[in-house]
Amino acid sequence: MKKYKSFETERLFIRPTTEEDATLVLALLNTPNWLKHIGDRQVYTVDDARNYIKERMLPQLERLGFGTYTMIRKSDQAKIGTCGLFDREGLNGVDIGYALLPEYERQGYVIEAAERIKQAAFDDFSFTVLYAITTHQNVASQRILEKLGMHYETVVRLEGDPEELRLYELTAEEFSK
Fold first, then answer.
1. Edge-to-edge strand order for the sheet containing 94-100?
2. pLDDT digits (tens, 9 = 90+) for 4-41
């Protein structure tokens, strides 16, 4: 397998998600927050999660060199969530996204990982603009995006998604200020 970039923060290792992370992906995709704000991906077993990684996550990594990253806490090697850069159909650009297991929420891990992935988007992958999408009711995610320096731009609707989403953006020029 080709070697892809990994990242590090004070408390986290952030590396590309692989099939070895199937247990984490299974847990994440079935958390109440994921189901409420993102939707049921019909991933109910470890095998489903492994297939989801193979079919939905790895192709983008192989095609673009970036994708979904697993967050691993340095203190105990616990896999606590994901953060990544996503080339979504229907969005004219790449967006940043994140998900955390409930027991690790409200400890600053998402901001820490997302700040590092945001930096990678501009410094390592030469983005000119970074987007993020979230539902109208996901106020916690909106606050995270604002802490990342992103600003609300407009409302979008992705193909096949009945719900309008809030689109946030950050340009390379704004990032470098």
1. 7-8, 12-16, 68-73, 79-87, 94-100, 129-135, 165-171, 151-156
2. 999 999 999 999 999 999 999 999 999 999 999 888 99
| Domain parsing of the chain, residue ranges | 7-175
The pairing of beta strand 79-87 with beta strand 94-100: antiparallel
Q: 98-124, pLDDT tens digit by residue?
A: 999 999 999 999 999 999 999 999 999
102, 103, 111, 166 from 139: Cα distances, Å = 16, 19, 15, 11
The dihedral sign for the CA sequence 115, 120, 123, 126: negative
Tokens 């979904």 belong to 68
- How many CB atoms neighbour CB 92 within 10 A? 9
**CATH class of the 7-175 domain in this structure:** alpha beta
Q: Please tell me the predicted confidence (pLDDT) of residue 86.
A: 97
| Amino acid letter, residue 88 | R
Q: What's the residue count for the chain?
A: 177
Buried b or exposed e, range 40-49, using 16+ CB within 10 angstroms? ebebeeeebb
